């Protein structure tokens, strides 16, 4: 497998403002472009991928109001026609009935095997659209135009698509890689700050998994990034995509290394479940708490220094993210409940929780044999 490459302006002569990350997956390889104004340039970017000049855009009602017009204008510059399917914004849209609605509409619009559909929105729209593309006529192409920071650094890259079921989140889905990802940094300007911070937690995650220098960079530039500095945002998005691309290229279907991307997520998912996936806790906020906990737990197990654990917690808190279950509004989820959710987590193998732990900042690894007693003990004390 080729390593993903990174090149500024390496995307030829169109615009030239965008940075490029290549995802090397053989026949399923694709590019991620990151930069300001990509929505308006999308016509030229898409043209080479189209068999005929028409596409279907799938989006949600928030994003439709803010960014759909720009995308349609961008397509129009190359004479590309579009139809739009607009769904209700929110996690509850990632379900069977919305999927059925989308698939049915795509068929009534006579979308063919060689056509292409566009996901314009956050992770909800990206996951649902990707899954619809995976199953429509046994698989059609789609492109991701992520408009949340979380989607730009995480969900739009790597080909995991799917919906939730009443049995749990993301339990129905498929691996289906997009043909192209266009991350327009201008779209982030309309993103509510709480959503932006949630995405920032995933950026911190990449640094903590494998790049201590990137973490130092974030300590220095995180504040500017959150405040709106386009260059800082772009650098962080490109770096994050590069790491995700590398990990996905090495392990597309999560047989091993890809599990590292779950750093902070075992705790985070337990917290999300304990708060009923409600607006009390966004996914990225759960990840922020989970990252602080994964470091604290690692320090307690003697795997990493207490100093690193403190640094991580301080950085997340300074950015404005929660770092303890006690920081969640309302009743604090209790330790026994968290332990139960962790046991039920899909990553539990033979009753032993599989954790991504750390030997320090930038040194994540997978530990299969975390004793249940140490976990329960840690949970009962953390944060209080
Ligand atoms: N496929 C993967 O690998 C992967 C990885 C991580 C997360 N996910 C999934 O992603 C989803 C979360 O994604 P998300 O955080 O993007 O949530 P989201 O799609 O619900 O978007 C969050 C909110 O922001 C709004 N929004 C989107 N873009 C906006 C913009 N530019 N300006 C203003 N508002 C905007 C949306 O309408 C929504 O209300 C979850 O379902 C999660 O399971 C998937
Ligand atoms: Zn995540």
Question: Which sequence of SSEs, written as H and E, runs from N to C?
Answer: EEEHEHEHEHEHEEEHHHHHHHEEH
| Ligand list | nicotinamide-adenine-dinucleotide, zinc ion
Radius of gyration, CA atoms, in whole angstroms: 20 Å
Report the structural category.
Answer: alpha/beta
Overview of this structure, please?
The protein is α/β, with parallel strands linked by helices and 384 residues long. 46% of the residues lie in helices and 19% in strands. The protein contains 13 helices and twelve strands. The strands form three sheets. The protein has an eight-stranded mixed sheet, sandwiched between helices. A two-stranded antiparallel sheet has the order 8-9. A hairpin with a 6-residue loop joins strand 2 (19-23) and strand 3. The protein is globular and about 60 Å long. Mean pLDDT is 93; it is low at 7-15. The structure holds nicotinamide-adenine-dinucleotide (NAD) and zinc ion (ZN). Zinc ion is lined by residues 154, 202, 265, 283, 287.
State the main characteristics.
384 residues; alpha/beta; binds nicotinamide-adenine-dinucleotide; binds zinc ion
């Amino acid at each position: 497998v080729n390593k993903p490459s990174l090149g500024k302006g390496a995307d030829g002569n169109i615009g030239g403002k965008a940075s490029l990350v290549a995802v090397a997956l053989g026949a399923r390889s694709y590019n991620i472009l990151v930069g300001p104004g990509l929505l308006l340039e999308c016509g030229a970017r898409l043209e080479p991928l189209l068999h005929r000049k028409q596409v279907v855009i799938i989006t949600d009602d928030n994003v439709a109001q803010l960014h759909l017009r720009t995308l349609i204008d961008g397509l129009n510059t190359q004479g590309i026609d579009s139809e739009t399917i607009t769904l209700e914004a929110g996690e509850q849209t990632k379900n069977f009935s919305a999927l059925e609605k989308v698939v049915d509409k795509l068929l009534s619009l006579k979308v063919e095997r060689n056509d292409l559909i566009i996901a314009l929105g956050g992770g909800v729209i990206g996951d649902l659209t990707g899954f619809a593309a995976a199953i429509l006529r046994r698989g059609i192409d789609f492109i991701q135009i992520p408009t949340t920071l979380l989607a730009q650094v995480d969900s739009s890259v790597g080909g995991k698509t799917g919906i939730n079921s009443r049995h749990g989140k993301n339990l129905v889905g498929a691996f289906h890689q997009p043909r192209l990802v266009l991350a327009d940094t201008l779209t982030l300007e309309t993103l509510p700050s709480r959503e932006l911070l949630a995405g920032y937690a995933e950026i911190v995650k990449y640094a903590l998994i494998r790049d201590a220098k990137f973490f130092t960079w974030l300590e220095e530039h995180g504040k500017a990034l959150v405040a709106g500095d386009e260059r800082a945002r772009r650098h962080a998005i490109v770096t994050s995509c590069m790491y995700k691309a590398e990990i996905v290229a090495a392990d597309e279907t999560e047989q091993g290394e890809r599990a590292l991307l779950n750093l902070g997520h075992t705790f985070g998912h337990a917290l999300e479940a304990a708060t009923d996936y409600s607006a009390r806790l966004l996914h990225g906020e759960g990840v922020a708490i989970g990252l602080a906990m994964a470091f604290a737990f690692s320090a307690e197990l003697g795997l990493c220094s207490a100093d690193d654990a403190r640094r991580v917690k301080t950085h997340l808190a300074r950015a404005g993210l929660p770092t303890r279950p006690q920081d969640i509004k309302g009743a604090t989820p209790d330790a026994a409940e968290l332990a139960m959710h962790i046991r039920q987590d899909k990553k539990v193998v033979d009753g032993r929780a599989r954790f991504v732990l750390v030997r320090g900042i930038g040194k994540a690894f997978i530990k299969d044999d975390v004793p249940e007693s140490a976990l329960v003990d840690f949970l009962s004390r953390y944060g209080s």
